[in-house]
Amino acid sequence: MAELLRSLQDSQLVARFQRRCGLFPAPEAYVEKYIVKNYFYYYLFRFSAALGQEVFYITFLPFTHWNIDSFLSRRLVIIWVLVMYIGQVAKDILKWPRPFSPPVVKLEKRVIAEYGMPSTHAMAATAISFTLLISTMDRYQYPFALGLAMAVTFSALVCLSRLYTGMHTVLDVLGGILITAVLIVLTYPAWTLIDRLGSASPLFPVCAIVVPFFLCYNYPVSEFYSPTRADTTTIVAAGAGVTTGFWINHFFQLVADPTEALPVIQHIPPLTAGMLVLGLTKFMVGIVLILLVRQVVQNLSLQVLYSWFKVVTRNKEARRRLEIEVPYKFVTYTSVGICATTVVPMLHRFLGLL
């Protein structure tokens, strides 16, 4: 009995050492206990952390497309996808572990198995806020200082939240900001060209789907399973669907192309109750349709893949296999992207919401 207890203790020590080194993820059931001493900072930074998560982008980007400016939404999606793919790949190449716990307390459990460097939350927040600033300062008239302050505030809150929640070190956050800044500077001269790629060639959809799928399927292999590959496939597939949807709109003249140049708007119209109700109605209609498409396509694609690879239905572990996870995620979110840019605007027009 003594030898058995000693062996169990040794195995627990080894597992703890490996976990601290990032060799395999911590058990999902493991929950750290903590005491909140300042609820203002706690809720501020938990909310700020949500601004860098998928739930924000799957609401903010469609809302921008349906209610504000489809030209801006297209550019934001393209830059977001580029930045996130490079950041996610960099994580699994560098393999730097997240901060050790203790001494920090990690408030988020889903991504605890991922590596830390660079912070993709910091990358996404910086990319979205400053791409929006750069793209609107010559398109709409507003105080530049106000736009800059909002961009800095948004990105700073998300970056600081990664430190508060114990998910990243200062170096992780600074690395993410620096990588994003370099990417924006390097790609900025080509932004106009990228905007026009959707109407450049009839073969564009093939490239827009095949190349992203190849990149996702050949994602760097990790020693253990983490949601990094699945999240990357979701983001890249959504981007592929959006760009394909814009091409479909242009080729078949389904929806008017986003205008690249607008006369300077002297005064942004004030938000009225009618505009708010219309915007929320368009958003709710679009989100409901997107969720329906997501559920239907996901179920169908999983059924086909389970049947093809002779896997037991509802096997959650099978979903993590490369040949199943990447195809079903890619097909699902490519369909979501196409639906958001093509089907939803036509539905809005049919319902008289445009």
Automatic annotation (TrEMBL):
It is found in: Endoplasmic reticulum membrane. GO terms for molecular function: sphingosine-1-phosphate phosphatase activity. It is a multi-pass membrane protein. It holds the Pfam family PAP2. The keyword rRNA-binding does not apply. GO terms for cellular component: endoplasmic reticulum membrane. CDD domains: PAP2_SPPase1 (cd03388). Residues 74-188 form the Phosphatidic acid phosphatase type 2/haloperoxidase domain. GO terms for biological process: sphingosine metabolic process. The chain crosses the membrane at residues 40-60, 72-90, 111-134, 140-161, 173-191, 203-221, 233-252, 272-293, 330-351. Keywords: Endoplasmic reticulum, Hydrolase, Lipid metabolism, Membrane, Transmembrane, Transmembrane helix. It comes from the Eukaryota. InterPro entries: PAP2/HPO, PAP2/HPO_sf. It catalyses: sphinganine 1-phosphate + H2O = sphinganine + phosphate; sphing-4-enine 1-phosphate + H2O = sphing-4-enine + phosphate. Belongs to the type 2 lipid phosphate phosphatase family. This is Sphingosine-1-phosphate phosphatase 2. It comes from Pipistrellus kuhlii (Kuhl's pipistrelle).
